[in-house]
Amino acid sequence: MSDTQQSGTASFIRENLEAFAVAVAMALVIRHFCVEAFRIPTASMEPTLYGDHYSLTGERRHGDRILVDKFVKIVRDPRRFEVWVFRYPLNYSKNYIKRVAGLPGEWLQTVDGDLWISSDQGKTWRIPYKPAGVRERHLAEYWPHPVSNPDAFKDVRCWILGKEWTLDATVVDSFEVDAGDEPTELEFARRIVRYGEVDDHGRSTEKPVGDVRLGFDVEVQRPGTLRVRIRDHRRDHVLTLGPEGSFMRAAGDHPELDLDWKLTPGTHSISFANVDDVLYAVLDGREFELSFAKTRDAPPAAAPRPASVTFPDHTSDNGVMVVARDLKARLSEMRLERDIYYNPEDKSPRSTDEEYWEIPEGHFFMMGDNTGRSKDSRSWEVLQVELKSGEIVRWEAGEEGNPISRDRPTGERAMVIQADVDGLVRQIYKDDVEKGGWNDAGTEQPFVPRSHLVGRAFVIFWPIFTPPVYKGPSRVRWIR
Q1: How far does the chain reach from its first CA to its final CA, in angstroms?
Q2: Cα atoms in the Cβ-side hemisphere of radius 13 Å centred on 78
Q3: Do 222 and 306 belong to one domain?
Q4: Nearest to 448 by CA among 366, 344, 350, 348
Q5: Do both 146 and 200 map to the same domain?
Q6: Using CB atoms within 10 A of its CB, is residue 371 exposed (0-12), middle (13-18) or buried (19+)?
Q7: 297 shares a domain with 183
Q8: Same structural domain for residues 164 and 244?
Q9: Which helix (H) or strand (E) holds 18?
Q10: Cα→Cα distances 164→23, 175, 178, 326, Å
């Protein structure tokens, strides 16, 4: 081989090694400062994000793969209701993913399933407004197929049909009405409860939910009046649709909102929702919004109950009803959804009437969308011991297998901590402890410091429909 050939070969190898080194360096820089991929291992963020699980048939399904924007934390703080990845405050070696519920300097509590926040140290309280994407993500199907038990209402009578209403026996979510001068009612007869946990008879002892949405398609054959009523703690919110005009009215002394929409012959798409003290009507794709939220001195334990009740006595405090008058129509694709129900009683002994979290500056309060099964800020507690050397050892309270007490062959009593807050295995001898013990009560540590933020989750990039590798539906979408 000539000197020229050797020089050319060396130059080729050097250039390719340089290109490879630059590519690796750029990939590391992007991963560290810009974007990183994560896998969701648990169900704490369902239905927004799915974790590893086994289906009812025993088939293993892997969790969603997501991309996290790590650069955004450099330019701004998290915003409420965004989904963020952060280092777990009780074990820094673990990454958690939750939705931002409380911001620095706020006071926060959950009452009757809703978040309530105060920005003036508890002088006034309000329900925070959900962006449209988050609101849609938090509305879970309840009828005809509850999210936790899709067959719960199968062969169960769920609607009470008034005079002139008939059920299409061939379609579970289809009804027909031929109403005259007298109003006639179609009422959902089952309790609407948090999480959709109902038995095979459509019954549940769970707490009722008043934040719901009813949607359907209506084929109008003879124009008349159609009213949709949502009952929230025996307070009725009404959407009235007619051939001459339509309007929404919130319960109480709130003004009506006239809607630029008419119920004319033909087929229309209708939905009506009560979420976080805001009414939403979507009529043929046009959305109308009426807020009746109030700033209060303190969150109510429950909405007041007026003496006059328009629903029949056999209904619960919460429910939905459709009322027709002078109308001949067919309602199809009927669907009932309920909003997320934030409840501290599952994870915390706090009283919903008197206690709250005071979020320090530079810290955030995180909650999972699967609120009844999420290990989040509501339940984080830490234990600690102070050693005679002055060192303080801290670890997560209630973690299974942590700590383990052992008797050493020498007779000494030892405690083995599987993971302290740094994620390290620690072995502590009882004689070395100055203060504290593994039988002490845990101390709440519910807040995530700004320094623990990793980044904002913004997209699911897997699973995607690529048989035979993955046979389920595609999950690729933006995270709201």
Answers
A1: 62
A2: 34
A3: yes
A4: 366
A5: yes
A6: buried
A7: yes
A8: yes
A9: helix 3-33
A10: 72, 10, 5, 11
308 and 223 share one domain: yes
**Residue among 240, 218, 331, 224 at smallest CA distance from 284:** 218
Question: By the 8 A CB rule, do 53 and 45 touch?
Answer: no
Sequence length of the chain is 480
Are 165 and 284 part of one and the same domain?
Answer: yes
Tens of pLDDT, residues 327-371 = 999 999 999 999 998 875 444 444 444 478 999 999 999 999 988
What are 417-431's pLDDT values in tens digits? 888 898 888 888 877
Q: Which pair of structure tokens corresponds to residue 109?
A: 């509590």
Q: In angstroms, rounded to a whole number, what is the distance separating the alpha carbons of residues 56 and 149?
A: 11
- Is 282 in the same domain as 393? no
Q: What is the CATH number of the domain that holds 309?
A: 2.60.120.560
Q: Are residues 61 and 19 in the same domain?
A: no
| DSSP state at residue 34 | T
Using CA atoms, how far residue 375 sits from 60, 110, 320, 323, 367, in Å, is 23, 16, 32, 42, 8
As a whole number of angstroms, the distance between CA 359 and CA 77 comes to 15
Give residue 431's domain range: 381-444
H or E element that contains 61: strand 60-61
Q: Which two three-digit tokens encode residue 194? A: 């948090």
Token pair recorded at residue 127: 């329900």
Q: For tokens 């901590």, name the residue.
A: 417
Q: Which helix (H) or strand (E) holds 330?
A: strand 328-338
Report pLDDT digits (tens) over 17-44.
656 666 565 555 555 557 899 999 888 8
The dihedral through the CA atoms of 423, 52, 375, 103 has a sign that is positive
Number of separate domains in the chain: 4
The CA distance from 43 to 53, in Å, is 8
